[in-house]
Amino acid sequence: MARIDIIMPQMGESIAEGTLSKWLKKVGDEVKRDEPIFEISTDKVDAEIPAAAAGVLAEILVKEGETVAVQTVVARLETEKGAALGKSDAPAPTGTVTPPPTPAKQPEKVTSAPAAAIAASHTGNGNSFEDRVRTKSSPLVRKIAAEHGVNIASLHGSGVAGRVTKRDILGFIESGASTTTIGTGARTGGHILPLPEPWAGDVVEPMSKMRALISEHMVASRHTSAHVTSFFEIDFTRVARIRAKNRAEFEAATGQKLTYMPFIIKAVTQGLQAFPIMNSSVAGTNVIYRKQINIGIAVALEWGLIVPIIRNANDLSLSGITRALNDLAARARAKKLSPEEVQGGTFTITNPGVFGSLMGTPIINQPQVAIMGVGAIEKRTKVLPGADGEDTIAIRTCAYFSISFDHRVIDGAVADQFLAFVKKTIETFPETGL
Predict the structure, then answer these.
(1) Does 173 share its domain with 280?
(2) 372 and 241 share one domain
(3) Residue 409 lies in a domain
(4) CA 223, CA 86: separation in Å to the nearest integer?
(5) 315 burial class (0-12, 13-18, 19+ CB within 10 angstroms)?
(6) Residues 266 and 339 in one domain
(7) Nearest-angstrom CA–CA distance, 419 and 113
(8) Phi, psi (5° rounding) for residue 345?
(9) Which pairing describes strands 370-374 and 347-350: parallel, antiparallel, or unpaired?
(10) Of the residues 146, 172, 195, the one at which a domain ends
(11) What share of the chain is helix, strand, coil (3-state, %, to 5)?
(12) Cα–Cα distance between 325 and 347 in angstroms, integer?
């Protein structure tokens, strides 16, 4: 018999830690290969993690509710195949390349560091592996930083890849040094804003792990990208007619419910091919033009938001997009998504219209450069040119689309041309497009 380590997997290229939310097995339980063994929670996904081999759960090292760094050993499995499997309990995500972390330095003695020791000459854009690990310090460190208006991204700590530890942040604060402050409300215009205090009768609840991390990522995205949003009204009358005509036959043939979203995704993939800058990422002063078109679809959950990815969406037919979309949404709500299914997106679509919203200004999903919002699709009265040249009033099925884009690399004209392309593609969708 041998023991293999079960580790905390990396659930996305920008994720440096995860919360072990629930053990599905207890010590002494037999575990089958690929059987879920524990649940984890990050800002990107709530997922069940399967065992890499059959055996007996011999030891649990991380308790429910604990947040630990990726690659941390959370348990050990006793199995005869342990030696051959090694220490990794999760397959490497496909389609992404994650640099290995810099080996941790082990100083003989760590004292309260002066500001010069940990303040970084931070000229990057926050997209490097070291930047991401550093800003993913422990919740306690982030809480201390928020209370004192310190931007963790501007510090270089003594942990792995410059990860800022509790001792680092306290030493920095004690030194009295100044650094770029965060944009979360802790400090504005050089003035520290006090945290709000609960009043009598108020209910105070801690944020869930997913909500806290979503909060961090939204603020970080606003801080990183130069956000601009543009709006177009799109006529869905033709698509609505095609959908109504073919819906019953399509659903009988594929077993899939046909919504408007597959038509939208199809138009977007064609738009991304026509305007490659919309399918890119910014790396310092370089622009990475993504060859893959991987569409992220924001799915609202009762406990937060998740963005599963339809990979190589440009290679899929309308029925293929429909099947992938429905499958990912269902498994997202059932916490059945794997790590690779929530990472590697190149463009995101969010659909607040399902809740009745007419339009919105969504925040870019880093490290992407654009996100498209879909408003409510509804019937409206429109003024149209008649056959005799006179204006007529008609009832049309319409929706407002928004495109939030990173003005560092995308000019307004390009973003508008992209959305105009999507508009024309939807409004002229071919009858044979199914």
Answers:
(1) no
(2) yes
(3) yes
(4) 40
(5) exposed
(6) yes
(7) 51
(8) -70, 150
(9) parallel
(10) 195
(11) 30, 25, 45
(12) 15
| Catalytic residue flag (residue 122) | no
Name the active-site residue from 202, 388, 407, 416: 407
3-state SS, residue 431 = coil
> Are residues 81 and 119 both part of a single domain?
no
Domain holding 261, by residue range, is: 227-427
Helix (H) or strand (E) holding 254: helix 237-254
Classified as helix, coil or strand, 412 is helix
Give CA–CA dist 60/324, Å, rounded.
Answer: 36
What values do phi and psi take at 4, rounded to 5?
Answer: -120, 150
The reply to whether 379 falls in a domain is yes
**168 part of the active site:** no
Same-domain pairing of 8 and 135: no
Q: Are 351 and 369 contacting, i.e. CB atoms less than 8 angstroms apart?
A: no
The answer to whether 68 and 78 are in contact (CB under 8 A) is no
Dump pLDDT digits (tens) for 66-96: 888 888 999 999 987 433 343 334 443 333 3
User: Annotated catalytic residue: which of 191, 217, 411, 416?
Assistant: 411
> Chain-centre distance of CA 6, in angstroms?
25
Question: 282 with 127: CB under 8 angstroms?
Answer: yes
For residue 368, the 8-state DSSP code is: B
Q: In 56-136, which residue ranges form alpha helices assigned H by DSSP?
A: 82-85, 115-118, 129-135
Same domain, 250 and 335: yes
Structure tokens given for 389: 């040249």
SS3 category, 90: coil
Answer whether residue 190 is part of any domain: yes
In a domain, 92, yes or no: no
- State both tokens at 124: 């990057």
What would the pLDDT profile of 197-238 be if each residue is shown by its tens digit? 889 999 999 887 778 778 888 888 998 899 999 999 999 999
The pLDDT value recorded for residue 70 is 82
Retrieve residue 278's tokens.
């919309």
